[in-house]
Amino acid sequence: MSSYRSIVLVKQVPDTSNITGSAMKEDGTVNRAALPTIFNPEDLSALEAALEVKDRFGGTVTVVSMGPPKAADVLRDCLYRGADRAILVTDRRAGGSDTLATSYILSQAVKTVGEFDFVFCGRQAIDGDTAQTGPQCAEKLGVPQVAYLTEIIDVKDGFATIRRALGNGWEVVRAKLPILATVVEEANEPRPQAAIRVMRNKHKRVPLEVKEGETLRDEDRLEQWSLDDIGADLSRCGLAGSPTKVFNVQSIVLKKEGSVNVAPTEEGVRGLISELVKDRALG
Amino acid sequence: MSRNNPQGEVWVFVEQEDGALADVTLELCGKARELADKLGVKVGAVLLGYNVASLANTLYAYGADKVYVVNDKNLARFTSAPYAYVINEMINKYEPQIVLYGASPIGRDVAPRIASMTRSGLTADCTDLQISDVVDPKTKETRKNLLLQIRPAFGGNIVATIINPEQWPQMATVREGVFPKKDADEKRVGEVVSEKVEIPAELLVVEVIERFVEEKKVDLKGARIVVAGGGGVGSKENFKMIFDLANALGGAVGASRAAVDGGYVDRDYQVGQTGTTVRPALYIAIGISGAVQHRVGMQESAKIIAINNDPTAPIFSIAHYSIVGDLNEIVPMLIKAAKERVVEE
After folding, report:
1. ipTM for the complex?
2. How far apart are the C-alpha atoms of B246 and B315, rounded to whole Å?
3. Cβ contact B321–A259 (<8 Å)
4. Domains of chain A
5. Which residue among B133, B216, B261, B339 is buried most deeply as judged by most CB within 10 Å?
6. In this complex, is the C-beta atom of A151 within 8 Å of any C-beta atom belonging to chain B?
7. Cα–Cα separations (whole angstroms), residue B239 to A226, B255, B265, B280, B285
8. Looking at chain B from residue 7 to 66, which residues have their Cβ under 8 Å from any Cβ of chain A?
9. How many structural domains are present in chain B?
């Protein structure tokens, strides 16, 4: 078997499907701390794609995430599912990064990991839906991107044959490695955690997760990198490295004009339909 | 990286497939025209492909003054790295101040790659674009004529305005249907600028070997009546009711993101910021609470009916007709009433 080196970029995100009133701050921004966090769904698909390459064609899977120490949760999850190595890039100076700064930091981390054949990431994260970080990383790594991967058809002789989704169909591309691929949810069914791998990895922590008075045994240490460790130019990280600025945030004032209350009864509904017919809204 | 050029043009990235222009490109040409008129500059459409120069006349008709054509066999099919390379070269040469892209699979693939090269800001899925002077809150300095990129933000009833004051071009993606397609003015003429860009061989390493494109299954944008279901519908089985009502009314089916995420219906049906924007004569929102991301995709409907058991649901604030109650009782009543309706000629 050959040995393909895959790097997977994953993100821990607030569970936006569970946003409640208490998660909103008074200024209209989201209080992320009040939200439950989850593994960004399409990043889980990206991990599965990398594990599939490893299973079918041989190789290794390294996972990289950027976030606060708590984001080590998703790295442990990756280890439970089959990743070989996991690294957290965590640094307060990375706070406030937009997609451009984030992609710079992640690409520096990938370069620090070393040479690769594949970088996999989810198409987009549910907390922003921008789908920008993947393509931006590809450019910074100097490799082509294959967006919206739905199937790895074959990997052979330094080329990957991949099916990818178009809005209205699909295409099959043959790409010379290395590449970055963004993966969509339809691509696969992520495998569950393996009990034996949970047993083996559940005590792993990044040093910043360790509370005062606790000790971290060497075999339980998860790799934790700062911006210095990845040789990042600080002017390209965090707010300083983010060209997009939030100019203002407004609550929407909903205008209510002449709304008609319709009774939830046969009669009310029948009246509504005939009014719509009269108004030519219905034919 | 290009410098910030206040005389720079407003550009639209042209999306075409086998010589057919994407609707979103024509919609953006109209918006670019508005922005450019405010700035007193020209609209440039950037057209990459092979033997596609004949599309220029259509682009003029929808608002372009200039069409930059890069004709190259290697650009016949869209692949992101060569396309991004060519556009970045053109940006460096001509220094547009704004570049707009459709938030389509192609636009969302190529635009971020370009933004990574120009190191300028890119705002995804804008629901409005405006030109305005901006006073820096810290320095009190006025920046003339910035592009305001407006989009609903994460999670709640808020809209964020994003600017890219420092590093231009200012770039944004916009979904199809967000801006209406203006009427074509066949008399408008423009100028073709032919460009030759040498694409480095190391970028030509992704080859399209097979392709399948199907007709759109769901035509929400063109529908006169849209019946949309949300998370309140509760299940895939129950969502059948939404189809039944749409059939009874002769309308199309739509859905909120909650319904799509819940697996009740395909993503093709999604109405809203990350789905389709619709402006039908009649929009019926069933079991949809009305988060801002949904509302921006339907609030310009001529008539809106909202059905929800929660009287405080935000959807009622924009509804013309409100029915508070159990959708499982109301929708069957509506289907019955719709089937029995009498239409006078």
Report:
1. 0.90
2. 19
3. yes
4. 4-241 (3.40.50.620)
5. B261
6. no
7. 49, 10, 8, 21, 13
8. none
9. 2
